[in-house]
Fold these 2 entries.
Entry 1:
Amino acid sequence: MAKHKVGAVIVSHGQLANELLAAAETVIGDLDNIVAVSIGWHDNVEAAKDEIQRAISSVSQDAGVLLMTDMFGGTPTNISAMFLEDGKVEIVTGVNLPMVVKLATHPEDSTLSEIAKEVEEQGKQAIYRTATLFEPAKLKKDA
Amino acid sequence: MLEGKLTIVNQLGLHARAAAQLVKLSACYTSCLRLRRPDTAAEADARSMLDVLTLAAPVNSVLLLSAEGEDEAAAFEAVCELFASGFGEI
């Protein structure tokens, strides 16, 4: 029997979610277990909720679903929070491209909780003040 | 264990799509493949795309490749060929 894989939904304002998924697929290839929900600026809550529900159902394989939202406190996160369920649905906010890549390349036997933790850590680690890598001495002096 | 120098020859350097190709190739072998930048001491597992990207290796930079395992010779050669081909960009 094939292993069940954790699914994921990227939820954002505007078209950000679709574009993040498109960028990840351009780099890695098709990502069957990840879908995007871009909430329109004028969508009502019920419509957005229904769309997220459909998206969760479409990627759910009984191994749990990770919702990756654009910004803590924003509408996509607040609506996504209605679906939180221990062991079944988790949310990580502040989605960026390295987080989507991390999710897409995790080992198949990872649990939802393990993946959520790794994706959160990856998102934080992947932010660099690039100049500090190239000119550490100068920046230290200026800081 | 095999070790050797690789030079990045494609203009865009070791960017995301190039790193993805390296990861895909590395997954075909059981040997442990690692890359190191001698000038910054940054190291990466060739099976992890996000790890490889942290090398931030531009065109003309030199990386040290090490391969260790049962199929290390074949893996080493395949990675060398991929870098020499400029990840299909030249």
Entry 2:
Amino acid sequence: MSSDTPDGRTVDESTDDPLIQTEIDAEPSPSRDAERTETIVRTKDLSVYYGDDRALDDVTFEIPENRVTAMIGPSGCGKSTFLRSINRMNDRIDAARVEGDLYFHGKNVYDDDVDPVALRRKIGQVFQAPNPFPKSIYDNVAYGLRVQGTDEDVDLDDAVERALRGAALWDEVSDQLDESGLDLSGGQQQRLCIARAIATDPEVILMDEPTSALDPVAASKIEDLIDELVDEYTVIIVTHNMQQAARISDKTAVFLTGGELVEFDDTATIFEDPTDPRVEDYITGKFG
Amino acid sequence: MSTENQPGPGISGDDSLDADHEANRRIRRVFFSCALVTVLTTIAIFLVLFDNAASYFFGARISELIAGADLERTVTFGEFFSGTRWAPDHSTPAHGVLPIVWGTLAITIGAGLVSIPIGTATALFLSEYAEDATRNRLKPILEVLAGIPTIVYGYFAVSFVTPVLVGGIASNLINPAGAWLESISHLAPFVLEPAADWMMAQSVGRYSMLAGIIVVGTMTIPMVSSISEDAMQAVPDDLRNGAYALGATKYQVATRIVLPAAVSGIFASYILALSRAIGETMAVTLAAGFNANLTANPFDEIMTMTAYLVSMARGTSAVGTVEYQSLFAVGLLLFLMTLSMNLINDLLKRRFQEEYR
């Protein structure tokens, strides 16, 4: 449990890892228009404890709207914990305790008057392993709309089609909407889960390593999809895969063991010219 | 010849392994004979019931019939299945099995109406609402309830359920309600008058259908709740997380995700509880009684098939008489009823397992 700087290591040693270096150089992060956008999620001194263990340590930063923000870092660094604290899924864990502030559109989501059910209707989530409900494809996508008791005048069929198109799944499943979501391939299941999340038109979509259970082809489809989703949504994605972060994100946050946010900046800066030597070590595969 | 078998790398069988193989075969035979014990017992029970039931209907056992005994219709199937009076040991005997089949069905359905809703709600509470500490304290208590011998439930019925609960319902609820109906009976005399009279006349003797229903219902609650809760706990947490992340409330997760995903296990618990209610003997005999009434009045004494078996097994009838043989006819019918419950259970399980993986 040490987040000490591995100062003994020199930066020079890291550059002779040609594989990682070239891959990152070959695919620079997509540069969305440089204009500044609004902040949608902001944290101030956010700490999360599981019992006596601190999983997140005084994290303070701002996540921009309509951008892909990636969280990277070694296992156990608190990045998934951070994700879960945004939509208060940590509430489901008895031992979890949150200190500090997390603002969504300027409202502290840990205020007493915030209803986590209402919050989660604004902030969707896609999980690590595809978790479609054991229901038909149609019912999977319609689930969120149904539990949220959407107005009668909203055409459910229409909404389901729109969500499936939004998740680039419509063409593959349009003639089998009544079949079980579990009959789809892993990659299709994950896109079904994305369709389920966007069907209710949230503002933010949290993704917890959404491609780690998928094969490379399915994973790259999800990545393409994320690229399209940011036109309408803010995407916050946790990933183990640094190349993925480099490819798809605009901003990158690097967490290191102990739940510390070490550096947060434009993705290009993080991967090409990080300030903190520990980040450089981590990115070049020398730490974590 | 080059194709000739080489001495080999020591993978062809030789004597050194023979002893091991022989031990394996022996163990296999031991395990198989253990499995055979249950199978043979089932077959033997069925054959004994069947053989004796044959002599109830045809005057001679199957074996005797084969040996050439005369076929004599002692009790016809028509009388057995459609007669409405059951009194094989009476001086003017009657062999209509309907009253005691009705008794068993009334207790089973009534007990299901008690145990299924309460048990399912208990399971939902334990699985979806209760904190770990609460669940860990409550579950063992429920399982203790399941382990109490049924005769104890029987005396619970005799000393509490019948006099206090059922008696209380009759004298504090039904009778006053009848008196009230009487007071307004001028509004519709032809309907209200008889209803009021009936309600005011109700009282509880030593036994009643309602007491049987309450006792058997209560004792099968833990079966429903415990097995249903296991099925609900087996629903992957991923599904719950997915639903919560979509802004579902706890109730929506419980009813629209957990219940449907656990449905095959929940149904299995229902069938098990109903089978238990069909076969339940001691408690139901002490609660519902020995009088084979074909009645829908919950305050009346009734007799279930098991209660009849108990009363006959006390040994007042001579071996070989028709009333003695009636035991086996009723036993065979009971056997077939529980067997069909098991088959329904298997059918439902297979069906829903296909739908929900």
